[in-house]
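User: I'll paste a sequence; please echo it back and then give the predicted structure.

Assistant: Echoing your sequence first, then the prediction.
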Amino acid sequence: MQVHPLTAVSPVDGRYTGKAAPLRPVFSEFGLIRYRVAVEARWLMALSQERGIVELEPVGGEAGKLLESLASGLSLEQAVEVKTIEGTTNHDVKAVEYFLKKQLAPVDHDGRLREFVHFACTSEDINNLAYALMLRDARDRVLGPEFRRLVFRLGELADRYADLPMLSRTHGQAASPTTLGKEIANLAWRLRRQKEGFLAVEILGKINGAVGNYNAHLAAYPDVDWPAVARDFIASLGLGFNPYTTQIEPHDWIAEYCHALLRCNTVLLDLCRDVWGYVSLGYFRQRAVDGEIGSSTMPHKVNPIDFENAEGNLGIANALLEHFAAKLPVSRWQRDLTDSTVLRNIGVALAHTLIACASVLKGLERIEADPERLAADLDQNWEVLGEAIQTVMRRHGLENPYEQLKALTRGQRIDVARLQEFIQGLEIPLDAKQQLLSLTPGTYTGLAARLAREL
């Protein structure tokens, strides 16, 4: 069957191929090969700079240009060549080694440089650094900017609707009023905080041999400070150094990364469900799009499909992230291979997150508050002022204020006339009475507007 988005098994590469496109250069098979080649090439260049390795001179000239070119931008054709070699070796990292040796052959006349490709390395030395670079680039270049756009858009909406009163609902019941902007500000603040935590996760790497002890390194060059060499090399890649590992870097930082991203996604999930509910209540209208159909049988419908799409994709992403965080740090003894297949799927979770982010942004662009609907809901719930009245009564020493308001309002609707009649009968100072009489559900919003604008 022809390879086409319509024939893809996964919607990430099918239905959502456009939305997932920014992650394709990172997490595709091509991306993994590209990052592996980059690590191998840069390790060879680093070895050539180590004075204790007397058999190597610092790589320069044609060889240096070649290695830099391979490290900076492997072509698709070159990746195909690596994959062809893997067809013979049946080992993906060894195929990268043989590819590099083949590339170096025309400029390495005595063959010495080629034998330092993959020097003292186990496959996991290359793989852990490749995945570290992949996850760093996906975060810093793709997901991080996407979360920043979401926070910015939410901030715009918080400011726009800072003064628009809205009935709160706790336990699904009418509660003390807020403003629409303040509720959006709550979500913006949460997402910003979780986004900063995600961006702050330290990404680690190791390059210390078959069981993490530099055994082969020391056998060949006993006078070289190999931990220092490893630390400097990993720092040159922009990663943190993990000095204590087995054959594999233990992936604890990947669990931290997944949990941090999961928390970002959970805030977005909460946002989707809240906005969906506000659309259902009529607090938000959705701008209709010409040609778009909401229902195959009910022509009037404009469904909150963007938020529903995002919720579904966030659920898939979080299920995968939970699995990665629980599974990847667990390995039998010095290593087993169960992490290999799991790591190959980590881009899928990030892709579903990216798809969800795009859907949320699209949905946020389409919604518009309906002030009349918000005001009507407030006007039907004057009983929410019971909190204010009983609190003022407490201040002025009246007996059983909570119980009095409970008897007046609990489980029943109270109109403005009945509430003001109750206030008129209170034995409190005139200015306090006037203050309560002037309150409406739309003005009883505390500092909500100020808090929304200060975001």
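The two ends are 53 Å apart (CA to CA). The chain is about 60% helix and 5% strand.
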